[in-house]
Amino acid sequence: MEYASVTCNSNTAATDRSGNFQLSLPADSAVLLVSFIGYQQQHILVKSNLKRIVIPLSRQRIDLKEVIISPAFSNNSFHTLSAIDLNIRPFNSSQDLMRLVPGLFIAQHMGGGKAEQIFVRGFDADHGTDLAVSVDGMPVNMVSHIHGQGYADLHFLIPETVSVYDYGKGPYYTYQGDFNTAGYLSFSTKDALDKSVISLEGGQFNTLRVAGVIDLLSNKAKQNGENAYIASEYNYTDGPFTLPEHYKRFNLFGKYVKPLGLNNVLTLSASTFSTSWVASGEIPARAAANNTTAVDDNGNPYTVPAAAHSINRFDVIDSVQGGQSTRLSAIAKLNTDLKNSWSMENQLYYTHYTFQLNVNSTFFADDSLNGDLRHQQETRDMFGYNGRLTKKSYLGNAVLTSTAGLSSRFDKIYGAAINHVTENDQFIEPLFVGDTRQNNSAVYVDESLETGRWLFNAGARLDYFNFGFHDSTKTNVIVSPKVNIQYTSNNEIQFYLKAGKGFHSNKAAAVIGNNGLETLPAAYGADLGLNWKPIPHLYVNAALWYLYLQQEFVLSDDGTIVPGGKTKREGADISARYQLAKWLFADLNINLARPRLADSAKNTGYLALAPTFTSTGGLDFKLENGINGGLSYRYMHSRPGNNTNTLRAEGYYVTDLKVNYTQKRYEVGLTIENLLNVKWNEFEAEEVSRLRGEPVPVDQMSFTPGTPLFAKLRFALFF
Questions:
Q1: How far apart are CA 447 and CA 461, in angstroms?
Q2: pLDDT (0 to 100) of residue 40
């Protein structure tokens, strides 16, 4: 367990990713106070001649009074927020998990099986271009993906298996590389289960979910540190659309943890995932409403009457959209405690992945006879290694943590193609064809010095890329320095300054073709923030931030990447968690951003779909009689739909309700999404589209409708 607090007198240490810590004792024996958010505090008597001890923690009701602000918690200023939210909020999907990150919004626009569109810190991050996502150290982002650079599909993650999640905003972390510009998001699965669970969920729109997490070993094996479990889930829904979505997903996951002697722990895990769906896709605004606004070729707005046969918001225009995808992954990890305060991690991973998608957002704009349907496909094998060597040195009252890391990832993508096809899947012409080979190897060093109330962290990483497309290759190198300074004034307030350089890679085909594109456009950022406990049951994180990007990318449906120019963003983030009573918690997140093209004049150079003001919050409750749940909202302010702000993406305010009755052996729950049944658009984008019968294409916003009031019941059995 990472970031557990271990205190002896006035000295405090924090556990690392493997749960290890070191602490100097004031005498031959002493009492350690061990605490972690959501777990019962432990007082442990230890003696100085003990080299290694194992301290078990038991879950208990969360109390924000026990939240500790300490210089020992490295440069991750968000670990407390993530621990609080994961312990308080009920969730049952990977989408719920992503929404736990303050200021991160997601949207679907081509059926439930695709990776979500991600909006965070003033970025329309597409499907992951500017957010590095990982599970158990294995990258989720797909480089040179046929549907978008950094495509991050998290649907293979079973939420019941998640133990902790970690996130950081900005490019300030040496252990994060490609796509870490707006930030990173990483999930860790459980090494051991508290209990086995089988659950059944059903709701409107023919929605069904069956899930199970089963412990496989006896208590005797667990006492020796050995753990194994298996988890699975099946999902089906037709969604609220007139054309049933027929969304199906099957997940299977297994994990095994085995100590090898006193100093080694081996972890093996494997997962498989398959999904298929039918997509209703995007609908031009004029098709669903009269007298909507569009833009002509000169950028002037004008009124467009509705099409001859206007449709319902949940109808479909092109009924052959949709897709299917699979992912098979395996991870092997060995953690080793070496002598003299050294530790080492070694990890290997492998993924086999397939993807197919039919998409048509412009309908007849390019081909008035056959339509604009695109078929996208790829198959990939991904191999990777992550290694880390860490040394802790005690220099009087100061602690120096030195880390050196090495990673390498190789992607082989074959059968990649985007073809123009008819609605009967008859081939018309190829738009993109080519196999890709891509390697990213990196080394990094990181030094953290904790002395008194100060924590100084500095490091740098060097990333090497080898891009191969068809018979051509190209190599590039980028160096990314980072620095973080943290000052803990007292147990109530902590200040931090972060600065660093990050980057995201371009698609291999674009790198080889160049066309004015940067291969590894850099991001330069800075955060000035604080963690504050003004009163015992209130925790506040706030930051002012700035980010400059050397080049943005704009991806079209035919696989072409267009350089989007230099951009800059500045903003403010505020997050607060308040415990109103022993059983009642409140949370509030406010995120402001001003995204612009860097060389634009004042009030011009807007970035299409980039969020400018978002907010989430709510009330969560946990009563002693087993009733628990929460009422939450999410708000997205309206924002520019194009770079001239002549088109707008509408904002929305959506409220969700979750209520559970939890006992030792079972749980019954009710979830109502969009409790107030508001009319909202989950996704909007500018599209130059032409409907059948229209004389010319029209430049206008297209949308995917958000889910109306949606109720689900859940029953879970614990054993």
A1: 12
A2: 73
